[in-house]
Amino acid sequence: MSYLGELLPGVLGELQAQARKRRYADDPVLWAHEYLGIQLWSKQRQIAESVRDCRYTAVAAGHGVGKSFVAGVIACWWIDTHPLGETETFVATTAPSKDQVDLVWASIRTFHALSDTRFRKGLVDHALPGYITGDNKWKLPDGQTIGQGRKPPDNKSDVAFQGRHATYLLAIGDEAVGLTKGFLNALGVIATGVHNRILLLANPTDPGSAMAQLWPDSEGKGGNPEW
Which end of the chain is more exposed for a tag (fewer CB within 10 A), N or C? Predict the structure, then answer.
């Protein structure tokens, strides 16, 4: 076999991998199904597709319907289908309490480990990159941080992710009904780029919360038309 003939399978494999990555970037539902082996249910599919298509997505849902689960799927899809590097791609997640932050990151850890298992079984051509620390930081092997989960600092909610920017930044607020207006504004400040996304998920238990103000009232008044 010639030298070029020996190179050809590797080149074709890389081209096929790049084509899959482009297809998955356009279809988070397909990514979840083919890469993780997970079938999202209809509302979870709508959430994932809204994050793909819209700068802002706010979701009001009940308990036990898989909000943290789908947030974890979307975070892993985001990291897998965008260029690596903390100035290129970053996932920032928050919630009113550390326990709630940990719920999303428990899902992220599960999917990270699942990707490794599926890679070792030959079901996918790569595992999710890097590793996840005990304090909810997703790092590349060279130490770059590409994801972080943290609760708003007490009395300093507006500076929790201050200075954090990336070309492809995804900001997730879980149980967002408990996040202050200052912190929601802070998420908006870090997610100003054209390729940035904000996802808020909550049980709509407090009509006076900052998140509730994003929706119009029963007469169609108020709200934020961007969400």
Answer: N
